[in-house]
């Protein structure tokens, strides 16, 4: 584990020095910073797993496909363009100031007998005590170099309907890491940059150390709109196109001139109970499917509703916050944040063996 961490840090160093973030510091206890920039990395536990999607299917209950949701207890079937922080009483995220919501599609195992089971999630590396959920990163190249999102802001990245590769290579904006060894071992690369173990499609073979999803959001904003009809057009990639994590010093296009912190999600899927090839399809194909019905994995996507209190995100980006070390913010222990929950208002089975995916799995 220690060895793999050192390799990780060596490999990431070149990338990091280009981005203004010093990743040479220990990853474990949020200690020691001091690159020119900032990079928050913190865990958010599950607040609910249910079929709601206030971005794509506002007001619809149930929505088309299942999600795992983290963050503030203001999450609902539709969410106003208001200061979400004011509507919240708790958050399942590590910092009490982060009352945002984050969500992704879930992953299912389709057994040989054509029944489905949800793949459990586990705490990510360095996030002991979390209940599944999402690890969130916010990265900025230097103090005052990014503008924090505004109250009401939301965005979506990825394309739930995609079933083909983007051919972005190491600049791919979503991927699955098939860990060849337990405890996050066997891959020394930054997210989505391992040419062997990071793929835009679902892994084709059992992954002894589980699967980690990464989803990277665009880093430029039009400076005006809190949202857009497809929840994507008000944000954009830098000139030259999508870039690898954590390169955040690109030039924003004139259409989207405002540089915002780069948001990235990380999700750990515990596939250990599903590695028996006797249960895999007889034709040798892989058995995993996203809650959208996507068995390729190319349709992985992420959703974000901003909800940081006041200027807390701006202050943490401008003051060298690094991992969980941030004097601008207030930490809460997992046993506290894990108490923050949203009642499941859809009330359908999310954990049994199911004859079909919730919603039928035919939806984007
Ligand atoms: C966090 O950063 C500050 C400022 O650089 C430093 O004094 C402190 O020791 C760091 N905290 C930890 C836990 O490393
Ligand atoms: C969630 O939305 C429903 C339907 O719009 C509404 O009745 C309910 O009060 C909302 N809940 C919260 C906590 O805002
Ligand atoms: C939200 O709360 C902040 C302080 O916590 C306050 O300044 C602001 O006016 C509130 N906004 C609304 C719309 O109530
Ligand atoms: C289908 O296969 C799974 C995995 O072996 C098993 O747990 C489940 O009971 C089976 N369901 C049916 C209806 O046979
Ligand atoms: C960032 O902006 C603040 C507020 O305008 C200013 O006080 C501070 O000196 C700036 N920091 C840097 C490094 O430019
Ligand atoms: C990003 O930073 C690196 C290293 O500081 C520099 O070489 C590169 O030109 C920068 N890129 C842009 C687009 O500013």
From TrEMBL:
The keyword Signal applies. Residues 1-17 form the signal peptide. The keyword Transit peptide does not apply. Pfam families: DUF1996 (PF09362). Keywords: Signal. Residues 53-308 form the DUF1996 domain. This is DUF1996 domain-containing protein. The lineage of its organism: Eukaryota, Fungi, Dikarya, Ascomycota, Pezizomycotina.
